[in-house]
Structure formats: structure tokens, C-alpha cells
Specification:
It is a single chain. Helices cover 39% and strands 16% of the residues. By secondary structure, the chain is an alpha/beta fold. Helix 12 (317-339) runs parallel beside helix 14.
């Protein structure tokens, strides 16, 4: 039976293929379809719903603002909603972390923020080259796509993707291999062929690239190299930020201070489109209107983002809870890896951004498909879609997390038995 989606929607859709139902309601960590079945959400809008669906504090703040005819769209004009968000961002997030960055509101998506960050780095330094890393994912608009490693996405460009040098990410060449030795050697060799970059663009945990997590030592050495060679550091914290790894910014435990930080996804707190570039004040060399866009700052998102900061980030209680649940997640996933070595390689990721690397992508697909039948919305990541990726809302209770992991284990048991039967 053909549906309106079959008739009207482009074939470019992806998530709908993995979860072929029509959802019509969501609250907390639960999604409901039109038939009344509910699903535990271990996808969370690809990391956009760290505080769950329709969190009551955020929803009430937004409803109140709309009912009082608050500004919905204001280009980059000053609004009360923007002022209150900026104050909360400065006082709750930046000052306690000794960051004096200023805010640039870009178009509403993560790739818009990455494009602005790369463009600014090139403008400030006068250099064109950007260093990005293997398995990085930074968006699919042309500039960000040039820095993205995945060949499937790169293949859709239809043109040359230039001015980016790709280097090995931490651990890419195997354990014990320091990928930054190559970077430093190339910078110090006039015949290496590496054009001195304006910036390095990196993720602390590579979300779409397969949950590859960089070490503290690697990040600190990367910063040291960049400082020695006057290269800007751009931290893409679009998926790993806003608490996903157990601190607001994913790079905090390493003690580094990126020059430019990109945020989006869970920044609005409610799934509203919103992206932000944080930059050192001395880098703010834009001419008025030199980089612009019609939707530079969503006032409804200002309201929910401010409320999220005030609700969850005034102290360390929420972050500590995320870290504790991350430990539970690690323990459960490791047990599954130990129990089914024929299916899995290892646990990957950090905090509440973890998953299991399967032997191949077919196994991961079978597991996530069976999990969906049981009531768990969970997806894959990695170059071959081989990583089963747990990305549930951070507000999930321990009981709900356990329920989801029980369903995941049941799916794994079923897949293992099916494969064993097929092999015999």
C-alpha cells in the first residue's frame, strides 16, 4: 500500500527505512506510533534530544513564551530571548570553565556552524588548508563535506572537495601508534607537501564515524602542536557536546581550550533547529553581515536552550548522573562483548555515547532490526555501519536504561541463535 511518504518524499530519507512506522507522540525516552505501540528511544534524534522528548520544564517555558506573543523570528536583531540565553550561556557554562569566547549565531544546523568556523579560520589566518581526521563527520554542505571522511556522503557532492588534508585519528593505525607523530613531522618538513593549515577540525568522540574516542594524551599533544605552529583548533562538539560524554563540552577532561567550538543538536534542548559557533574574541574579525543567513538564531530555541542550561547545568548533579549511567552502560556492553566474541570486537565510545563494534555491518543491521521489533529504536554507525550505537536521552532512568539494554541483549541472543542455526 502506497503512503503519502512513498508518493511525496525523496528517496534520500534514511531513518524511515530502519523504523518503518508512523510516530505520532513522544515523551521522555518513549516514542509512540499510530497503532499505540511504544518504543524506547536509543537514538534521541541522533543526539539532538539529550533531555528527552518534550521535557516539561522546557515545554512549559516555550508555551508561556508563545502565549505572550514572544518574538519568533528576529534575524540577528536584539531580543529579550537572546539576551537571556546569552547571559545563561556566559554565567552557567563559559565563565565557570574559564572560557571568554563570544557567540556567533549561524544558520540552524550543525553543518552551518562548521562552515562558519572553517570560513573564519581561513579568513583570520589567510591560509586555505584545513586538517581533518579519518572517520570524521562534520556535515554534508560542501565545505563541511570536504572535511568529512565517509565516502558514501562524499560521493553525493558531484564536484571536487578541496582544501582539506586528512590525517589519521587517534588509534586509526592501531593501538600504540601515535598519529600525531606524522602531523608534527610533516609540519616540520618543507618537502612534506602539507600546506600549513589554518586550523585542525576534530571531534573528541567521532559519533557517525564509529564512536572512536580520542585519549586525553592525544588531545593535549594536538593542542601543543597547534600552539607551536600557530594553527587554530576547531572542536566539533555538535554530537558529543551538551553533556553527552559526561561534561558539558566533551574536551573538558583533557583540559584543552579550543579556539573555536561548534554546537548544535542538543543545544536547543527540545529538538528545535539551533546552531552556534563559540570563538575567541580576538578571532572575531567578521565585517558586519559578511557571514549571514535568514535564520541566525531561533528565538524559540533561545527560550528552551536557556531553560535547559538553568535546569541541568547550574551544578554537577546532572553531569554526575550521566557519568554514572555511562559506567552502567559500559559494564553491560562489555559483558555482551565477552559473551559473544563471534559477533563483536569491542566496546567503543565514552559516557552515554557508546556502542558495540560488530564483526561486520550485516550483524549490526540484524541486531538493530530485531531490537526494533522488540520495541527499541537504535541505529548503527561507523564506516561499514558496523557499530551498534547507544545514544539514548541523558535523562533516562537507570530502570529504563536497563530495560533498553535487556531488549538489546534479547536481540543479540536471537541473532546469535539464528546465525548458529544457519551455520549448522
Amino acid at each position: 500500500m502506497m503512503t503519502i511518504f512513498d508518493v511525496m518524499e525523496s528517496s534520500v530519507q534514511t531513518y524511515a527505512r530502519s523504523f518503518p512506522v508512523v510516530f505520532d507522540q513522544a515523551k521522555g525516552v518513549w516514542l509512540h506510533d499510530r497503532s499505540g505501540k511504544r518504543y524506547l528511544d536509543f537514538l534521541a534524534g541522533a543526539g539532538t534530544l539529550n533531555y528527552g522528548h518534550n521535557h516539561p520544564a522546557l515545554k512549559e517555558a516555550l508555551i508561556e513564551y508563545i502565549q505572550h506573543d514572544g518574538i519568533a523570528h528576529g534575524l540577528d536583531m536584539h531580543t529579550d530571548a537572546k539576551a537571556k540565553f546569552l547571559s545563561a550561556l556566559q554565567n552557567i557554562i563559559l565563565k565557570p570553565r574559564d572560557l571568554d569566547h563570544v557567540a556567533q549565531f549561524t544558520g540552524p544546523t550543525g553543518t552551518n556552524a562548521v562552515e562558519a568556523a572553517m570560513k573564519l579560520a581561513r579568513k583570520v589566518t589567510g591560509r586555505e588548508n584545513i586538517v581533518a581526521f579519518t572517520n570524521g563527520f562534520h556535515g554534508v554542505s560542501l565545505g563541511a563535506l570536504a572535511a568529512t571522511g565517509n565516502q558514501h556522503h562524499r560521493g553525493g557532492a558531484g564536484t571536487v572537495l578541496a582544501n582539506v588534508t586528512r590525517l589519521p585519528y587517534d588509534g586509526y593505525a592501531g593501538t600504540g601508534e601515535d598519529s600525531l607523530v606524522l602531523f608534527e613531522a610533516m609540519l616540520n618538513d618543507n618537502s612534506s607537501g602539507l600546506d600549513k593549515p589554518a586550523a585542525v577540525l576534530f571531534e573528541v568522540v567521532q559519533g557517525e564515524g564509529g564512536l572512536n574516542a580520542s585519549s586525553t594524551k592525544w588531545l593535549q599533544r594536538l593542542e601543543k602542536i597547534c600552539r607551536a605552529h600557530d594553527i587554530l583548533m576547531i572542536a566539533d562538539d555538535i554530537q558529543a557536546g551538551c553533556g553527552r560524554t559526561g561534561t558539558f563540552f566533551s574536551f573538558e577532561p583533557a583540559g584543552i581550550k579550543p579556539d573555536i567550538i561548534t554546537l548544535s543538536k542538543s543545544l536547543s534542548g527540545m529538538g528545535l533547529p539551533f546552531a552556534l559557533v563559540l570563538l575567541r574574541p580576538d578571532l572575531d574579525q567578521w565585517e558586519p553581515g559578511e557571514h549571514n543567513g535568514t535564520f541566525r538564531g531561533n528565538n524559540h530555541a533561545f527560550i528552551t536552550a536557556r531553560k535547559a542550561l538553568e535546569t541541568f547545568w547550574q551544578d554537577d548533579e546532572f553531569a554526575a548522573g550521566v557519568r554514572a549511567k555511562g559506567e552502567l552502560l559500559t559494564a553491560r556492553l562489555q559483558k555482551l562483548v565477552d559473551k559473544y566474541p563471534q559477533l563483536f570486537d569491542k566496546v567503543k565510545g565514552r559516557g552515554m555515547m557508546q556502542g558495540i563494534a560488530c564483526v561486520n555491518g550485516d550483524i549490526a543491521d540484524e541486531i538493530t532490526s530485531r531490537a526494533f521489533e522488540l520495541g527499541l529504536v537504535i541505529e548503527t554507525a561507523g564506516p561499514e555501519d558496523e557499530v551498534v550505537k547507544c545514544l539514548c536521552p541523558l535523562i533516562i532512568t537507570e530502570a529504563e536504561l536497563t530495560q533498553g539494554l535487556d531488549w538489546l541483549e534479547e536481540a543479540i541472543v536471537d541473532v546469535a541463535a539464528k546465525r548458529l542455526k544457519k551455520a549448522s
